[in-house]
Design goal:
- The chain has about 350 residues and is an alpha+beta fold.
- The chain has two domains: about 160 residues, de novo design (two linked rop proteins) (Up-down Bundle); about 170 residues, Glutaredoxin.
- Helices cover about 55% and strands about 10% of the residues.
- It has 13 helices and eight strands.
- A six-stranded mixed sheet has the order 3-4-6-5-7-8.
- Helix 1 runs antiparallel to helix 3, helix 1 packs antiparallel against helix 5 and helix 8 packs across helix 11.
- The protein starts with a helix and ends with a helix.
Length: about 350
Amino acid sequence: MDQAQRRLPALLAAAGLLCSLVLEVVHVRAYLDPSTGSFCSAGAAADCGTVALSRYSVLGGVPVPVWGIVGFAVMLAAALRGSRMLLPLSAFAAVASVALLAVELVAIKSVCLLCEAVHVSSWALFYVVFRRRGELSPWTRDEWINSGIAGAAVLFGVYLFVPPYWALYSWRAGVHLPHGVQADGNPWIGAESPRATVHEYVDYGCPHCAVSASQMRRLLANNATKLRVVRHQYPRMSCPKEPNPYSCAFTRAALCAGEQGRFWEADTWLFEHAPGKPKLDLDLAIRDLALDGAKFKACFDAPATLERAEAASRAAKAARVVDTPTYFIDGKRLPAGEAFAELRSRL
């Protein structure tokens, strides 16, 4: 394959590499600045942020976009050399793109427009390389070894040295801050005489809530004597009068864990396990949170608990909460970005 013939495969590999780099930026911003909206969002069914915040966005301790960056960089090098090594690499990338699309459609139920650009680049690259496979120069053993070592070194380096920014700040090991329950029944945590109080409305099934709540916990940990957070539930899943395993399950679990003095531990646990899932593994929750199983299940199935969950939903609607997460400071409703900015200016 001469230099002119190498141009198209190299351009396709470069396009995939560029999209993967942008995806990693989106991934980092989604976790470190949850107030930032994704520029490639076109609604709930096509939102890069939703895909980035899903538990499928990290594979083997490395963000999926980084896998793409390494893969396309290796393919770009092979394309520039006109190496036949490009054929199996592009075939693997094309198959992987189908698997990732299936995860988006089936598990996440939202697609990422930038991800689809990567998938199109993968398939286009494989098509071009397959059509021109006879023109490629044979690969050498050293090519495979050098490419493998370089790719593995980058991935291993990310695994070892890049802080896991996607990990949620957790209180599962125990809460060491003052906490209690307000007169209206909503749990609070943080300062006993706060300089600022924020009311945080969440839905445990919401990935964006999980990240924003994690950032709020970090902010609270650094300002424990100044900030108080009040938790409000907005279970958007319907709460029918007859309890079943699906109706307001996450909120009911938090309420029942609270009955055993483990609300904030359960709050963290639910944000780790609930987003993107239709139902709750009660036995796992009981085991992880060290709860009295019989009491927890009795509380979970009690009509009174369901009514408390429904009351929380009604209260959120009465406060004109539409999306989660939503924040109130001094009675003023604020989106996540403005709320964090306001708190940082006060603290």
